[in-house]
Each structure stands twice: as structure tokens, then as C-alpha cells.
Specification:
Layout (H helix, E strand, L loop, with lengths): L4 E3 L9 H9 L3 E5 L13 H14 L2 E5 L11 H21 L3 E5 L8 H15 L7 E5 L12 H11 L4 E6 H6 L7 H10 L5 E5 L2 E2 L10 E2 L7 H9 L9 E3 L11 H13 L1
Parallel strand pairs: 1-10, 2-3, 3-4, 4-5, 5-6, 6-7, 7-10
Antiparallel strand pairs: 8-9
Helix pairs in contact: 3-4, 4-5
């Protein structure tokens, strides 16, 4: 089975056009928003748009990963924000099921000063409230970089939520920049083994492949282009040599950079992977 890799791509004008954009870049996987990424309102699909999306998904065999919008915070203790966040989660899960999308990524969020355990317990409650909407879609919680009040930067946080939620429809998306910022040196096999022991790479179903503008343990979420940050090309070669990560969809969320070809990072990662075979 070949490498599943691609970018976060736009759904502008019509959601199915994401497949055309992904194909043009040589993607075998892609990530998309299926609702407004910066608002609460749902975006309803016309029947013909849905049909085109499903047809292109079946024809191209591109692995689709959906991402929740930015506003929801399922770790919040504010009852209004929490309710709106859970409703947004339900809407996104329902739409993923309708479109045949296997994975929905959600940020774990911020406890907003109410303490780490309270934030984690709020996430567990949100999962329980939304579980009936998951259907054939897995909810993938994304690890955080460790900014103030964030939960999910520590692998123990992820393990805690997984154990308390006790849901077979729950998994994780690991972001390499976030791991590095949180102090996990992903260029070291011993660190990857520690993650496997504490959480299990089998519970990770997608990976955000991003370099880090900031050094190890910075606690700052600053994505950089592959090979331009502190992880570096050699670091990604070491990370990708760990056989438990390359079976997952690899999604690049790297910034645009003047003079950098749109598909260069994709080609670089493919070359690294092929050199390891």
C-alpha cells in the first residue's frame, strides 16, 4: 500500500473541487473543512454538490480527513460555549457520515483557567454527548502544543481522555509541530516508543506533518515548511523511518512561502519515504 499524503486544500465554490485541487498537486490524501472554519453557522450542501463529492471520492480514492472549525472549544466550562461546541461537533460528524468521510479532527481546546482535569473531563462529556452522531466516522482529537490553558499537549492527557471516554469511535491525530513544541523530540526513536507505550500509535489514525518555527519545548504553535524549521529534513527522515507512522494519512498544514513550489514539500516527503524502502 502506497503512502497516503497530501495538503489541507480549499473547498471554495464547491466542496468537490477539493479533489481536483488535490489531484493537481499529486495528493493521495487531503484535509478539508466541511463547515465555515471561522464561524458557528453550518454550511448546507446542495444534493448535486454532495453527489459530485461522493463520486470523486470513490473515483480518485483520495483519503479524506475533515477538520473541525476553530471556534468550538469542547474543553470549555462556559455552559454556552460548551453547548455550541458540542452542537458544532454533532453537525460536523453528521456531515462526515453523510459524505462518507472516515475521520474528523478536532482540537482538544482550552480549560480557560478552570484547570487541566476539568478541561479533560469536559472533553470526555462532549464525546459522550456526540457519540451517537459518529456512525462510521472516527473522531480524532489533535494533540496541542502547550500554549497557556491548553489541554492535550501531554500524551498522558490523551491517554486519560481515551480511557475515560471508552469509545471505539475515538482516536487521535498527531501534529508533529505540536509534539515538538510540547517537548517531544520526534527525531528520537525512544520518544516515539514512549508515545507508543503511553498511548499506542494504533490509536493514531492521521498525522499532521508540519515543521516547527520554534525550538523543542517552546510551547508555541508555529508551523513551518518541511525542512525550513527546527525539525528539519533529517528530522523528518528519522520520524518517517518509524514504521508505525507511515501507514497513516499524512497531512501537510504548512504555510505558503514565496519561491516554494506548491508541491515541493509533498515531493520531498515522498523522496524521503522511497529512500527508506
Amino acid at each position: 500500500m502506497g503512502l497516503k499524503i497530501g495538503y489541507h486544500v480549499s473547498i471554495a465554490k464547491s466542496m468537490d473541487l477539493a479533489f481536483d485541487r488535490a489531484e493537481a498537486l499529486g495528493c493521495t490524501a487531503m484535509q478539508i473543512f466541511i463547515t465555515n472554519p471561522r464561524g458557528w453557522a453550518d454550511r448546507r450542501l446542495a444534493n448535486d454538490e454532495k453527489e459530485r463529492f461522493i463520486e470523486k471520492q470513490e473515483r480518485t480514492r483520495i483519503e479524506v480527513v475533515a477538520h473541525m472549525p476553530y471556534l468550538p472549544n469542547i474543553a470549555s466550562s462556559n455552559s454556552i460555549i460548551f453547548k455550541k461546541s458540542v452542537n458544532a461537533l454533532k453537525e460536523n460528524l453528521a456531515k462526515c457520515n453523510d459524505l462518507g468521510i472516515r475521520y474528523l479532527v478536532a482540537h482538544m481546546g482550552s480549560h480557560m483557567g478552570h484547570g487541566r482535569k476539568k478541561g479533560l473531563d469536559n472533553i470526555v462529556e462532549a464525546i459522550s454527548m456526540a457519540e451517537q452522531y459518529m456512525g462510521s466516522t472516527k473522531l480524532l482529537l489533535e494533540n496541542e502544543s502547550g500554549h497557556i490553558n491548553a489541554v492535550g499537549a501531554d500524551i498522558d492527557d490523551l491517554s486519560y481522555v481515551y480511557g475515560k471516554a471508552d469509545s471505539k469511535k475515538l482516536g487521535f491525530c498527531m501534529d508533529t509541530c505540536h509534539l515538538y513544541a510540547a517537548g517531544y523530540d520526534i527525531t528520537r526513536r525512544s520518544v516515539l516508543d514512549t508515545i507508543d507505550r503511553k498511548l499506542g500509535w494504533d490509536k493514531v489514525h492521521a498525522i499532521h506533518l508540519n515543521d516547527s518555527k520554534k525550538p523543542l519545548g517552546s510551547r508555541l504553535d508555529r508551523h513551518d515548511n518541511i525542512g525550513y524549521g527546527h525539525i528539519g529534513i533529517d528530522g523528518f527522515r528519522k520520524f518517517l523511518s518509524y514504521d508505525k507512522v507511515t501507514s497513516k494519512p499524512l497531512i501537510l498544514e504548512t504555510p505558503s512561502r514565496q519561491g516554494l513550489a506548491d508541491d515541493k514539500e509533498l515531493r520531498d516527503i515522498k523522496r524521503i519515504y522511497e529512500s527508506l524502502s
